[in-house]
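SAMPLE LOG
Freezer: B-3
Tube label: C17
Construct: single chain, 244 aa
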Amino acid sequence: MLLVLAGAVVGCGPVIDGTAKPAPNLKPRPLSGSTVRQVPLDDVALSRMLGQPFVARMPPQFGGPDKLYSQTPPAPCLGVTAMLQRSVYESAEVKDVASESWWNNGDPAQVISVMEGVVTLPTAAQAEALFAKFSQQWQRCDGALTTEQSGPISTTNSINDIRISNASKTIVAATNTATSVLPNMPPLRPTPQARAIGVELNCLVEVEVVFFGDRRPSDPGSANPDTSGVDIAHAMMDKVSALS
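STRUCTURE (predicted):
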């Protein structure tokens, strides 16, 4: 019995109130498998962070590289304007992909939608190298104007304010403006979009926050196009650390 108990606490620190605490010298483990599904924030956390309620846009997605999205043909600077694109990650050894999408609940608000994504690679070194590549690509796209076609809808993206946040974890962020045009109709009102991508251990996290173009300061919500994407990415990266 003593041997069994000794084996059960190997790698753990002191037991306080019946809970084994991790030893301080244990190295973080790469995230993999279903644990990755716990990284995106839920509607409660997002509502608290952005000051408005959200509802699920679609069921959470989880799987391998097949869960990445494909746009054909890939547009220039696609990694800055669209989430989790297959062509953006094609050079990487992607293991797991998890994503969640949220809508505004229908009432007046600041934010239309939030999308969160997590991509795992085999090692932290590979994730860091891919993030460095993305960082350079995003900075080269600063000031670019791109056009994407989705069925009959043409969307022009103005990429602005590419910046690197080095607060506690490194994140690359952008504040874009998207203007969509439908056939035989005037352009829709431009919508600001906050984008952010960061790296933690073997995980890259992506965030997109889309704002109403006609929002008013008096509408519910505390989201900001210049900061909210970064704030959500930081929170997801903290969850990666906690789960490792």
